Amino acid sequence: MDLPRSLVVAWALSLWPGFTDTFNVDTRKPRVIAGSRSAFFGYTVQQHDIGGQKWLVVGAPLETNGHQKTGDVYKCPVTHGNCTKLNLGCQTYMDIVIVLDGSNSIYPWVEVQHFLINILKKFYIGPGQIQVGVVQYGEDAVHEFHLNDYKSVKDVVEAASHIEQRGGTETRTAFGIEFARSEAFQKGGRKGAKKVMIVITDGESHDSPDLKKVIRQSERDNVTRYAVAVLGYYNRRGINPETFLNEIKYIASDPDDKHFFNVTDEAALKDIVDALGDRIFSLEGTNKNETSFGLEMSQTGFSSHVVEDGVLLGAVGAYDWNGAVLKETSGGKVIPHRESYLKEFPEELKNHGAYLGYTVTSVVSSRQGRVYVAGAPRFNHTGKVILFTMHNNRNLTIHQALRGEQIGSYFGSEITSVDSDNDGVTDVLLVGAPMYFSEGRERGKVYVYVLRQNRFVYNGTLKDSHSYQNARFGSSIASVRDLNQDSYNDVVVGAPLEDSHGGAIYIFHGFPGGVLKRPKQRIAAAELAPGLQYFGCSIHGQLDLNEDGLVDLAVGALGNAVILWSRPVVQINASLRFEPSKINIFHKDCKRNGRDATCLAAFLCFTPVFPAPHFQTATVGIRYNATMDERRYTPRAHLDDGGDRFTNRAALLSAGQEHCQRINFHVLDTADYVKPVTFWVEYSLEDPDHGPILDDGWPTTLKVSVPFWNGCNEDEHCVPDLVLDAHSDLPTAMEYCQRVLRRPAQDCSAYTLSFDTTVFIIESTRRRVAVEALLENRGENAYSTTLNISQSANLQFASLIHKDDSEGSIECVNEERRLHKKVCNVSYPFFRAKAKVAFRLDFEFSKSVFLHHLEIHLASGSDSEEQDSTKDDNTALLRFHLKYEADVLFTRSSSLSHYEVKANSSLERYNGIGPPFSCVFKIQNLGLFPVHGVTMKITVPVATRAGNRLLMLRDFLTDQVNTSCNVWGNGTEYRTTPTEEDLSRAPQLNHSNSDVVSINCNVRLNPNQETHFRLLGNLWLKSLKALKYRSLKITIHAALQRQFHSPFIFREEDPSRQVTFEISKEEDSHVPIWIIVGSTLGGLLLLALLVLALWKLGFFQSAKRRREPGLDPAPKELE
């Protein structure tokens, strides 16, 4: 849904500072005086004091008088009643005598009649305006009708239509002119009327010798003569008219180009009607004694300005609409020479029509006195304003020219000088450019120029509303007397096209030496009455119209004049004092609700001040509220009557007299004795819509605090002495060596020297750092004592534990934006004298930030001023260089531990080398911190010292991407055929007695990360079979070593792991045949001897005897 445009504009204005509240020009009860819209009643307004009675004079430039729109002026009462027309309509006060050649040579006469009728219709004929008489001549002269015969255009035209041609053989032009001068102007002529004669003839006069005398007499009588030469007779006969034209030019007033006309024949007379009529009308406001008739058509009086010695008049039409400025004085007109303007208005730009004199005013400087100002809004299309001095010798001195910046802006169409402080010297010159185009609209602009020494300097522009609409802001600018009663004159600017041609005015307040550029009040036509249009086309404000001692404002609109009344301004001075002046919490002097309390009284006072002298005995009603500790959830102060608000109280104040109200209140025990108890007072006028209005910008609130007594010396200046002590639970290297490594003191001293500085050890199981701290106050009360805790980025604050036996308390504020800083309040609101607070701080090690050092900074302070000499012990800095105990798991594994070398072992099975092996050393970081600065050193025995290869290392692998390793010795070439070498005396080969391959790797492990170091190779079987030994051990050694500057240490010094290959060899089994045969025979012989010996001893017989008794009886029976 589209909002109405006026509503959108009003909403936009309400958002702009200064437009949400009106000021002291009342918009609720305007006096709207209605008039004719067609006459443009309200085009100008002027406040007047006539005989002590105030009137509003309103211009209606299109008012009709008779049949002509002559314009008029109305006099309107300011409070009630109807306006009276003054009948001052445009007075073309002329007596015109038309002298017609009626001789026989004029033909056809009907064309002359048509010309006569048409020119008569151009004249404003009527009482107080133009009178017309007609004389016809030939050989004689007659009155067709006299000047005062007819009083209207209709009657004169009717009479002229019946004029017949009288004829005649002679053309006595000199006689006809003299007849008109001596008789026609006397019969019905008026004193003071301008005399105009129009002579129309078609041939040379028969009494031309008399012309010189006749013309001289006409000049003496100030008769302006227009002469029309009709060339029909000469053209019809082919006669040269040069002599005739020279005669007619002689008859016409000077200059000829303004007063002489010629036409080809009688029928062509109709072509000069308009030009002749315009030139006659332009005579009004000019005199024959003006040396240059460049001021004809000048529209002298288009603008005017009253000065000490006369009236300054603008003549925009002068000099072919380039314009001019005249001054009407008691001694006559001062008309500057045209050449005086040429410096600023050069001849080459004369066709542009500068319209100099469109508006005129004057300024006063302390050096140059009064200087005139005139605007030329069409100069070079951008406009110009000149500041000049006019001399009685008709010369001008142009002091300065101000130029417009935009084509068509009409810069200089409105000019107003402002003396804001009434010291007689102009402070500001305002120049309007109402057609200035901005933001796609004809918004208008008002330029501000301030006086610096004797020149006006550009100083910005006045601000209108921020709505993008056609406004023509600056169409009218008025310097008005002090509206807001601050003793400085103000400015009102009209914008008659704002709000869809409804119009608005802007009020700008003056200040010493200038005018505020932002308006204090905007008044739109819609606020005042429905149907107002072009409100703000004219403005005036110099008088107190309703006798209330205040300047009122008159504003013109289309068909209306509006009077806006000023309201008196009041300033409310508020004050608040307390008895006693401070809250003594150490001495409770009363009881409230059964509790000890400190009782006080507040005295709230108001004094109204009216800047306007007329209101020194006036009264004004106010309402006020008083609140204690408004922004606190639980107020510390309470009214004796109950509650904490003193609300909705009314008071009637008399001008200049103080009115006070006593407010009794009390303070009970509270935790906050530092911040004072604040009283917040709000006050406003009881009836803001009527009567006085509160001065713009005047405070309507009062904030006063009553402090607590701090309990210190008589000077109430507390001098504390804070002492802070702190130590951590981190062990030094010496403590770590003795307690953890359990080494003797002598060894531990050497252990500490292994580090480049004093270090503290972080054991692998430690996750926190504890700090024991004690803060005490050895001086007077310390108010708002704080403890600032900051730590290095590798620490995170975990907790603060307050010791039970402490005399104070400590509370910390959580600041999420400051991760490594914390502020704690100590015994808020004050840390008592001689008090102590003990506490423990715990910090956790960060999992994301690792540093070689640790820093904890504790700083105490307060709002009380401690002496510099005692501030050194207010801080404690714990800074430690750290060594971390690495928590690593170091293991090894191998695919081969024992191998037996047999005689029949074949190399073909192992690709011609020997059995393969795979060794793995694994390191796991089980700790919290990333491990670095550690080197893995691996030595692999690959050959004996005699050069016999023991094994071949085929590859070395690690699974850690950022690990860098160096391998030495793996490229050594050993003999392919082994030599005899007895290793039975060195059965164990390692890095100390063998040729080795060395591998060094830098180790970096994040927490819970592991890495593997893998060795792949083969035993060198060819050498192992050839070498002399029964059992052989080959040991691969791996060790972890910390670099010198490494932040890590190991609980076991250089932890190492080994992988051992045990090699054994099978015994040789070749025995000679003869030994085998001899052994066999010897064995058989030995057996035979043994059997014989046993038989001899009776071994076999004893056995027989033992068996006989036991024979079974059954066989006996069988036998």
TrEMBL record:
Cellular component annotations (GO), alphabetically ordered: external side of plasma membrane; integrin complex
Transmembrane region(s): 1073-1097
Membrane topology category: Single-pass type I membrane protein
GO terms classed as biological process: cell adhesion mediated by integrin; cell-cell adhesion; cell-matrix adhesion; integrin-mediated signaling pathway
PROSITE patterns cross-referenced by the UniProt entry: FG_GAP, VWFA
Main location: membrane
FG-GAP repeats: 24-85, 286-337, 395-458, 459-517, 521-581
Subcellular localization(s) per the UniProt record: Membrane
Annotated SUPFAM superfamilies: Integrin alpha N-terminal domain, Integrin domains, vWA-like
Single GO MF descriptor: metal ion binding
This protein's name: Integrin subunit alpha 11
Lineage: Eukaryota, Metazoa, Chordata, Craniata, Vertebrata
